[in-house]
Amino acid sequence: MRDSAVGVDDVTAAFDTRLTELVARRKEHSRAFSTPYAQLWNALERMALGGKKVRPRLLLDAYRALGGTDERAAVDAACAIELLHVALVIHDDVIDRDLVRRGEMNITGRFASEALLRGASRREAHAWGEASSLLAGDLMLTLAHSVLAGIDVDESRRRTVLDIFDETVFESAAGEHHDVWLSLQLESATSEDVLAMVDQKTAAYSFQAPLTLAAVLAGAPSRVVDELTVIARRIGVIYQLRDDVLGVFGDERETGKSTFGDLREGKETLLISYARSDAAWATVAPYFGDDEMGASEAESLRRVIEESGALLFVESLISERCDEVHRLIRESHLPTAMIHQLVDLVSTCDARTS
């Protein structure tokens, strides 16, 4: 146990050390198996130790703001949340058939390329790459659960933590499944459909899980946990709506990704759902979801989306949602430090450019 006077930098360092230790231990164990399996753990280590660490930082900051004092428990929960994120990202890339992540080949791309160089057919190489990714995601998911199950807290609290994790995975899978269904374009997606998918796919694991885990581990009263649950879901939707806007209208130099990746993929966002109701959509509909779509077709799609009023609609909704969540924060029974953190988080989600 450590008191709340422990510095933020100390806790961050403890998190980095613990995450490195968890993955390194399994990477070392993998050497007793096949060479490709050891290579898989090398790839997992790069993924787990890279990235922005948004979710674990959110959990650790909230834990401190809520008066938590058991640094080790919070650090382990933060590690589990990051490992869950890695698992979902890996599986998401398989579902989206992506070969690149964070500007470099992802696990599917890396293992498929290696197999091609060794003489495998393109079909065999891609199957090998996807199999490697699926197993890698499973390994990260299992490790996340194992870390949470081993947290040294009383049994009642551990059960609550594991229940939160279980529901988070369950709901995130529901959101991902719904997202894939919407992308098939077999029926018209309403704004309500898209918002429900976003709420399940993004808000549940990126915001609700870190905040509620922090609250439970800090011993916050149930009223605070309930308030954080509602607020977190609202913030998660704001985050994803902004992400969808940046995915089509953002600055590629800041976002680090193409502004027509979502359009090529046929991602059913609120922008698209709204734009479909405009008569001009029929002129660009064939481009949407086309793997061969070029820059000129993407620009035509962007123009129709903006002229339909979809961009203005989503921006207005983001603004309304920000006002709503600010009201919920003001009216909550959260400690002052937590209120300040959430206000800053809302502003960051709204104004981010990458």
From TrEMBL:
InterPro entries recorded: Isoprenoid_synthase_dom_sf, Polyprenyl_synt, Polyprenyl_synt_CS
Keywords: Magnesium, Metal-binding, Transferase
Family annotation (Gene3D superfamilies): Farnesyl Diphosphate Synthase
Required cofactor(s): Mg(2+)
Transmembrane segments: none
Superkingdom of the source species: Bacteria
Keyword Oxidoreductase annotated: no
SUPFAM superfamilies with a match to the protein in the record: Terpenoid synthases (SSF48576)
Statement: the UniProt record of this protein carries the keyword Magnesium: yes
Similarity-based family: Belongs to the FPP/GGPP synthase family.
UniProt-recorded name of the protein: Geranylgeranyl pyrophosphate synthase
High-level lineage: Bacteria, Bacillati, Actinomycetota, Actinomycetes, Micrococcales
